[in-house]
Write a structure and sequence with these properties.
heterodimer, A: 310 residues, mainly alpha, MetI-like fold, globular, B: 349 residues, two-stranded antiparallel ribbon, 73% helix, 2% strand, flat
C-alpha cells in the first residue's frame, strides 16, 4: 500500500502539471491565497472571534465601529462592526464559507447536468443532440444571470420570504446549477464529438460493450481535463451569481449572510460614511473570484498545450 | 437564404411560444386572481361562480389559448400595485432603462475600439499590457461592486490623510488620493426633457446628464473588458491574414492598412457579438438600477417581486423575452446576410 502512494506522489512530482505549477508565480500566489481563504472559511467557527448567528453575542451598542487604524475603532473588532453590531471579521469568515459552499455546490450540480446532457448530445447525436443543444443555445442567449434572476424571483414569490430564507442555500445551488449547465454541456459535447471518432471507441463497440458503458467508462475519462478547466472558472461565476442574487435580495437572508448579502446590507449605510461594512466584504469577494479565475487561466494553459497565451 | 430566413424566424416563434408557456405557468401557479379581487367575506359558492365566470375552471389548454390570444392583442392583464395595464407600466419605465443602455453602449464603443485596436497593433507595449491586466481584473469585479466603489469615490468622496501632511510630497499624495464627490447617485434628477409618448430624456439637461454618468459607467464597466478582449483577438487574427500581408508588401501606409482594411473586417464579428451582449445587458441593468435607484424596468421588476405583483412579473418576462428573441434573430439574420459562409443548419451536409 505504501509503495503505491509513494509512486503516485513521485509520478505527481515528475508530472508536467507540477513542473509548470512550480514555474508560474501567478499560479502559486493565486493557489496560496485561495487555500488560505478556503481554510479560513472551513475553520470559521474556530477562527472567528464571535459567532454572528448567535444573537446573544451581539451588542447593538457596538454598531458601525470602524476598522482598526481609524478614529473610534475598538481593538476587539479588527475590521469594525456592521449596523447590527456584529463583528465584521466574523461575518466575513462565515460569509465566505456560505459563498464557497454555494459556488462549489452549484458547480457540482452543473457538472452533473452538463456531463450527462453533453455526453448524451455528443454521443447519441441526431434528435437528442438537436433538442438539447437548442435548449442550451436559447438558455445561453438569455444570459445565465437573467435566467437565475427569473428562477430566483419565481421561487421567492411562490415560497414567500420566510420560507425562502430558510432553504436559501439549497435554492441558490439549484438556481445557479440549473442556470449554468449549458456552459459545461457544450464543452463536454465538443470533446465527446472529437473522442467518439477515435479507434478505442470503435474497438469498444466491436467488443460488444453497451452504449452506457462506452459513454461513461470509456469516453468520459478522456474528456475530463476540459471539464476541470471550465468547472474552475464556473466556481468563480457561481460565486459572482450568488453575490448578485443576494445583492438583489433573492439570495441569502441577512441572518445567515453570504458575501453578497453582506455587501447588500452594508450598502444601506454607505451614505452615512460607514464604507467598511460594504467595501471590505466586496474586496474579499473580488480577491476570491480573481484568484479562482487566474487559476482557471493557468489550468487552461497547462491542460491544453495547443492553446497558447495570446 | 430564404430557407435560412424561414428557419430562424420559426425558431424565434418557437422560443417565444415556450416563453409564453412558462409565463402562463407562473401566472397560473402563483397568482390567484380571486384573492386580489374579493374580500374574505365572500362565500365559497360565490367564489365558485366568479371562478366559472372568469373561466378559471376551463381546461388548461383553453386558459392558455385565452392568455396567448390576449397577449397577442397587447393585453397582459393589470398590475395589482399600479392598477393599470402592465404594458403601460412597462412603457413608462422602459425609456429610463433604454437611456442607461444607450449611455453605456456609447462609452463601450468609444473606449473599446481604440483600446482594442491599440492592444492588437502593439501587443508588447506596456500600455497594452496594462489595459489587458485591468480588463482581467475588471471581469472579476461584479457590476454592483463597481457601482458601490464609484459611489464612494465620486458621490460621497474620499478624504485621504495617510501621508504626513507637513511634507510637500505627503500633501501631494494626500491630495492625489482624495476625491471630491458630489456626483448624484440616486435616481434620474428632476430636470427631464419630454420627447414623445412616455419618453422623458435626461440627455438634454445638465442635471440629467450628471445623473446618467455613474450608472452608465458602472454598466459599461462589466462589458468593456469583454469587448476590448474581443476586438483585440479579432484584430490580431485579421492582421495575420494574407490580404493584410499583401497590402503591406504593396507598400500601403500602416494607418491605411490598420484602420481601413483591417478594422473593417474586425468589426463584423464584433458587431454580431455586440448585438447579443446588448441583450445580455438587460440582466445587468437590474443590478445597476438597484444600486442607483434608477426608475427603469429592472427596478420595477424587483419591486414587483417584493410586492408579489404577479401580472407585472409575467409581463416583464414576456417583454424581456421578446427583446432577447428579436435582438438574437436580427443579429443572426444580419450575420447570415453579410457572411454567406455561415452554416445553414437546416440543410444536411
Amino acid at each position: 500500500m505504501t509503495t503505491a502512494t509513494v509512486s503516485r506522489w513521485d509520478r505527481f512530482r515528475e508530472s508536467f502539471f507540477w513542473y509548470s505549477f512550480k514555474r508560474d508565480k501567478v499560479a502559486i500566489a493565486s493557489f496560496a491565497v485561495l487555500l488560505l481563504m478556503v481554510l479560513a472559511a472551513v475553520f470559521a467557527p474556530l477562527l472567528a472571534p464571535t459567532d454572528p448567528y448567535d444573537l446573544a453575542q451581539i451588542n447593538i451598542m457596538n454598531s458601525e465601529l470602524p476598522p482598526v487604524g481609524l478614529d473610534g475603532a475598538d481593538s476587539a473588532f479588527p475590521l469594525g462592526t456592521d449596523a447590527q453590531g456584529r463583528d465584521l471579521l466574523s461575518t466575513i469568515l462565515y460569509g465566505t464559507r456560505v459563498s464557497l459552499m454555494i459556488g462549489f455546490g452549484a458547480v457540482v450540480l452543473q457538472a452533473f447536468l452538463g456531463i450527462l446532457f453533453g455526453l448524451l448530445a455528443g454521443y447519441l447525436g441526431g434528435k437528442v443532440d438537436a433538442i438539447l443543444m437548442r435548449i442550451a443555445d436559447v438558455q445561453l442567449s438569455f444570459s445565465t444571470l437573467m435566467v437565475a434572476i427569473i428562477v430566483g424571483a419565481v421561487f421567492k414569490a411562490s415560497f414567500g420570504n420566510l420560507m425562502f430564507g430558510e432553504i436559501a442555500i439549497y435554492m441558490l445551488i439549484f438556481i445557479i446549477g440549473v442556470a449554468e449547465w449549458p456552459q459545461i454541456a457544450r464543452t463536454v459535447r465538443a470533446s465527446v464529438l472529437a473522442e467518439k471518432k477515435k479507434e478505442y471507441v470503435d474497438a469498444a463497440k466491436v467488443m460488444g460493450f453497451g452504449t452506457r458503458r462506452i459513454m461513461f467508462r470509456h469516453i468520459l475519462p478522456n474528456t475530463l481535463s476540459p471539464i476541470f478547466v471550465i468547472a474552475t472558472v464556473q466556481i468563480a461565476n457561481a460565486i459572482i451569481s450568488e453575490a448578485a442574487l443576494s445583492f438583489l435580495g433573492l439570495g441569502m437572508p441577512e441572518t445567515q449572510p453570504s458575501l453578497g448579502s453582506l455587501i447588500k446590507s452594508g450598502f444601506d449605510y454607505i451614505q452615512s460614511g460607514s464604507w467598511w461594512i460594504t467595501l471590505i466584504p466586496g474586496l474579499v469577494l473580488v480577491v476570491l473570484v480573481l484568484v479562482i479565475n487566474l487559476l482557471g487561466d493557468w489550468l487552461r494553459d497547462v491542460m491544453n498545450p495547443r492553446l497558447y497565451k495570446g | 437564404m430564404l430557407a435560412f430566413l424561414v428557419q430562424r424566424i420559426s425558431q424565434a416563434l418557437l422560443v417565444m411560444f415556450v416563453i409564453s408557456v412558462i409565463a402562463f405557468a407562473i401566472q397560473d401557479g402563483l397568482g390567484d386572481p380571486l384573492q386580489e379581487m374579493v374580500g374574505m367575506s365572500v362565500s365559497e359558492e360565490e367564489r365558485e361562480a366568479i371562478r366559472e365566470e372568469l373561466g378559471l375552471n376551463d381546461p388548461m389548454v383553453v386558459q392558455y389559448l385565452r392568455f396567448a390570444g390576449n397577449a397577442l392583442q397587447g393585453d397582459l392583464g393589470n398590475s395589482y400595485f399600479y392598477s393599470k395595464p402592465t404594458l403601460e407600466v412597462i412603457a413608462e419605465h422602459l425609456p429610463a432603462t433604454l437611456e442607461l443602455v444607450i449611455g453605456a453602449s456609447l462609452i463601450i464603443v468609444f473606449l473599446s475600439v481604440p483600446i482594442g485596436v491599440y492592444a492588437a497593433i502593439r501587443p508588447q507595449a506596456w500600455l497594452s499590457k496594462f489595459f489587458m491586466g485591468v480588463s482581467t481584473v475588471g471581469i472579476s469585479i461584479p457590476v454592483f461592486l463597481t457601482a458601490i466603489v464609484l459611489i464612494q469615490l465620486f458621490s460621497i468622496g474620499v478624504r485621504v490623510e495617510w501621508f504626513p501632511a507637513d511634507t510637500g510630497w505627503g500633501q501631494w499624495l494626500n491630495g492625489f488620493f482624495t476625491t471630491e464627490g458630489g456626483l448624484p447617485s440616486y435616481g434620474r434628477g428632476d430636470e427631464l426633457t419630454h420627447l414623445f409618448g412616455t419618453w422623458e430624456s435626461g440627455f438634454f439637461t445638465g442635471t440629467g446628464l450628471m445623473h446618467l454618468v455613474l450608472p452608465c459607467v458602472s454598466l459599461a464597466s462589466i462589458m468593456l473588458p469583454l469587448f476590448i478582449r474581443l476586438i483585440r483577438a479579432e484584430m490580431m487574427e485579421v492582421l495575420q491574414s494574407d490580404y493584410i500581408r499583401y497590402a503591406r508588401a504593396k507598400g500601403l501606409g500602416a494607418g491605411r492598412i490598420n484602420f481601413l482594411h483591417a478594422l473593417k473586417n474586425t468589426m463584423l464579428p464584433v458587431i454580431t457579438v455586440g448585438g447579443v451582449q446588448i441583450g445580455i445587458m438587460v440582466a445587468y441593468t437590474i443590478l445597476t438600477e438597484t444600486v442607483f435607484q434608477w426608475p427603469g424596468v429592472g427596478l420595477m421588476f424587483l419591486e414587483a417581486i417584493t410586492r408579489s405583483d404577479i401580472p407585472l412579473i409575467v409581463a416583464y418576462l414576456m417583454v424581456v423575452g421578446l427583446i432577447f428573441v428579436i435582438t438574437n434573430t436580427v443579429v443572426d439574420l444580419v450575420y447570415g446576410l453579410v457572411n454567406p459562409t455561415v452554416k445553414l443548419t437546416g440543410k444536411k451536409a
